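Hello support,

Our group uses your service weekly, and this is the first time we've seen a run hang past the timeout. The protein is Cullin-associated and neddylation-dissociated 1. I'm not sure whether the cause is the sequence or the server load. Input pasted verbatim:
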Amino acid sequence: MSFSLLVVSISWSLQRLLLYVLLQAVKTQNQLFFLRFSGGKLRLQLWLKQMLYFLHLLSCKMTRSSVRLITAHFDLVYSFVCLLFSRFMATNDLMTELQKDSIKLDDDSERKVVRMILKLLEDKNGEVQNLAVKCLGPLVSKVKEYQVETIVDTLCTNMLSDKEQLRDISSIGLKTVIGELPPASSGSALAASVCKKITGRLTSAIAKQEDVSVQLEALDIMADMLCRYGGLLVNFHPSILSCLLPQLTSPRLAVRKRTIMALGHLVMSCGNLVFIDLIEHLLAELGRNDNMSTTRTYIQCTAAISRQAGHRIGEYLEKIIPLVVKFCNVDDDELREYCIQAFESFVRRCPKEVYPHVPTVISICLRYLTYDPNYNFDDEDEDDNAMDAEQNDEDYQGSDDEYSDDDDMSWKVRRAAAKCLDAVVSTRHEMLPEFYRTVSPALVCRFKEREENVKADVFHAYLSLLKQTRPAQSWLADPDAMEQGDTPLTMLQSQVPMIVKALHKQLKEKSVKTRQCCFNMLTELVNVLPGALTQHIPVLIPGIIFSLNDKSSSSNLKIDALACLHVIMVTHPAHAFHAHVPALVPPVVSCVGDPFYKITSEALLVTQQLVKVIRPLDSQSEASDSFDPSPYINDLFTCTIKRLKAADIDQEVKERAISCMGQIICNLGDHLPAELPGTLLIFLERLKNEITRLTTVKALTLIAGSPLKIDLRPVLPDAVPILASFLRKNQRALKLCTLAALDILLRNYSSAVTPVMVDAVLAELPPLISESDMHVSQMALSFLSTLAVTHPSSLGQLSGGNILQQLIALVRSPLLQGGALSAMLDFYQALVATDTPGLGYMDLLRMLTGPVYSQSAALPHKQAYCSIAKCVAALTRACPTEGPAVVGQFIQDVKNSRSTDSIRLLALLSLGEVGHHVDLSGQPELKTVILDAFSSSSEEVKSAASYALGSIAVGNLPEYLPFVLQEITSSKRQYLLLHSLKEIISSASVSGLKPYVESVWSLLLKHCECQEEGTRNVVAECLGKLTLIDPETLLPRLKGYLLSGDPYNVTYNQMGRCWGSSGRGQVSDCCPTALQVEMGPFKHTVDDGLDLRKAAFECMYTLLDSCLDRLDIFTFLNHVEDGLKDHYDIKMLTFLMLARLSSLCPSAVLQRLDRLVEPLRATCTTKVKANSVKQEFEKQDELKRSAMRAVVALLTIPEAEKSPLMSEFQSQISSNQELAAIFDSIQRDSSSANMESMDTS
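Update from on-call engineer: The timeout came from a worker crash unrelated to the input. Re-ran successfully.
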């Protein structure tokens, strides 16, 4: 710091003399100097000594006489330096103190500090001025409001000074002060006061100042202030607008540009009248079109307004777009560029309003995408000749009057057209078929673009098209769906040859950027259409190899080329590459040896895939069998083993080398008998290393699962105990991978796994079988199931051991479900099949059901009964001879009047689970017993009986389904019987149910108008599930009922969950409205349509999950807006929808933000009457919290805070203590949830 201070403060000649004298004093320890230094005039501190070395760099050799000359004037030199250092260091110390939170200033100190800092802003030394400006930031938050106003007044005055340096430093100071003011949302009076004080001075400076530099600074500060605090200056907006508009015709382009920036920030917060004035002014000027230069400015201004406040300008597009279209035809390249940029902003920011004009925009963009008036592209067949001609003419020098490429501005028009097409493609998903008919061929033709930046934008536009085409859901990529006609995927498939032909020429371009774009294109293409390049591999491989071998290629290009090659190999059949393996192996091996670790890492990934290509173990094709991999094995092994052995390499390379070598041994191990033992020993070493052990476990799992039966016996005695020790490590991923490795080792190397090894693993298992981590428990259970098959003798120690206790505890856990439950059932079936003493069928049955029958304690959760029942059924299926007796016992338990509800519950559930898989029609009393259970006093027993009847019916539909349908018709217990029917529809096979669909459908329709809401809901679920069995026939019927106004709308919510894409546009508008009924002196509201509206809104919420891309989002938002003003239950749903929509489609929500804020504000500010019941207060509190969650979600949308209504609502929330507390709490919860999701990922 001090060095730079000296450099700028003294003349060069004096500086050289002074620096050399000081340096000589230190070097020679001259007594004269050190006497003067130690006498109190200049103390050489450590920072000064360090500075002296840098001073020496500027000094030059001097004679001793020169030194004496300077020594004679030492007092003068010293005084100058001391004065300079004292100001600088004092200011630096002040800045340090002001940055401390602990500093407190009284009124007098504040006044002195402010006065001195403002004085230092006028210091002649630039370094002191810079430090003074830095002090302003922390000072603003430390002094009182009137002192801040003093600072602002002084800075505004100085900004109009004649001294350029003072003007500049004052401008920086004003920006610093504005940046340090509290945010507008805090409700601080300081920010409003300061901004209002500055605004008048700035508008005056902008309107009246003749000095352009002052105007530019004032415009810059005005833009900054409007961006941060525009909402606080609403009263000043008309005057700001009136001073800004004339500047759009300024002769200086810089003034116009900064004016446009300021206007862009103004429209984000201005009122409607100011906005209308601005738009009408622009429309009038564009219609007048007096001057082409100002017309360009007005078009730029319109585009800037659209970018900043697209949700406001949308309603004026009908007037604006025809004018912009007209100007596109004017012969002015710069104007065309600005017009197309305006189209781009309209497309991105006003998607609904611009929709009718999209075909026009596409047409204009396609026309100007090829606009290159100064260049003639020859036919494709003559390209090579044209290139030769260009090379021959390189030496030709034309006259000075001839056209130069430097004057060619047409490339900017083409670039704007490409970017605008990118915007159209990115925002109009529903027009994909049209894009593939018109836009796609045009973009592909322009891959030959001669201007590199334009070419990059063309590639980017096509990448956006591919990303839009990528199927959002797996069913969209179904081959059967692709056969239905001209879908985007089929159209893309037909254009692949044309794309490859265009890319083939670009892959050998000199431009690195172009080749990178090609690789990105190919990568995205095969992600969208896996296997699409199978026929074109011979054309593409040479281009990839060219980039890998090219010495001029950058590291990033090689990485992109390798990544592209990897993705292509993963998504295409191995035989497509066999002809190219000789050409591919050398460059890939070379990249594995590259000194840059990222290239090496990517190359190892490619090598791993290349191994699968040359020896695909999972392929049965004759082409794979006929390919001989042996010539390439040595090269691949050698380059990988070198990286595997190296200890001083990047962690990523180590892991990739281990994975790659694992793949080599897995696929080619039978060709490496000599190298295998040594390599396995290296794996053993890596297994002992904490950093590489996880990757090594995965590699060993891969090798152990190889169909080549690689001999791992030499390392198993050492490896298995190490793997067993990993099970106690506090690393979840390591536990899961280790259990998978042990499982595969048991399956494929059971003879080499000794009982001692098994015991070492079993000792570590009990803590892993727990409800705290169901996935780990599932893997542990799978290991035990394999152990029961391969080493049944080892299970003897389970009887009475910790593992069995943990298993029984897990069965009773309410969390047991899904994969863990399936693994548990598989284990019990494997265990009972071993006939281990003490672990037979009846022994296990007693362990499972004992607590229920002993009545020692009721199980804590109904799910425990369900899990036990499933385990009983699994045991019964494994031992069919025991089945009849056990089923008979369960029937007796249900009949027995002395049985507790717990026993009946377990017996019924067990009967249902057994009957699901075993035909129980041979039990004559079963139907009667279950129907009698429908009359139980226990709701849980009734529910279990309903489930049991449905599940048993699945085991024999012809016997039980007609019986259930008959009972529904004749019995009064429809609710329970309908639940049985729902279980049948959910669990039975489609082929088994098909003959009964019509009779079930007719029966369900009869119960749609049942008076009980619960029954109607079950009928709705049944209808929805039944529709999925025969959608071609039943879905049109269901839609007809929905649109007819019949009471079936609730059904459609169930349909939306499973068949959501068909639900577009089916939310009905014809819901009945609420009526007021007079009952004596009171008025009572009867809302007959509430249930119907609730069902419709539930369906809407479901559609957000299943088919967002099929919805008209603006129509959807209309319904959401209505829901925000509806009943309590509907409001709660719409608040949830609003939060979801804020993240799913923020631009559409931003356009409707002003209309959404008002109902949210109304909900948050509504007060419950003082004499209301407690429930009303609780409901209103919950509504407030839900509304506030929606507000927090809306504020995550970029630029939402810039809405005047939202900004005002935020200030209202901040000023209300109750609302502010709720808002802060929800924000904290939201941020902590985000952090947790990041940790999980």
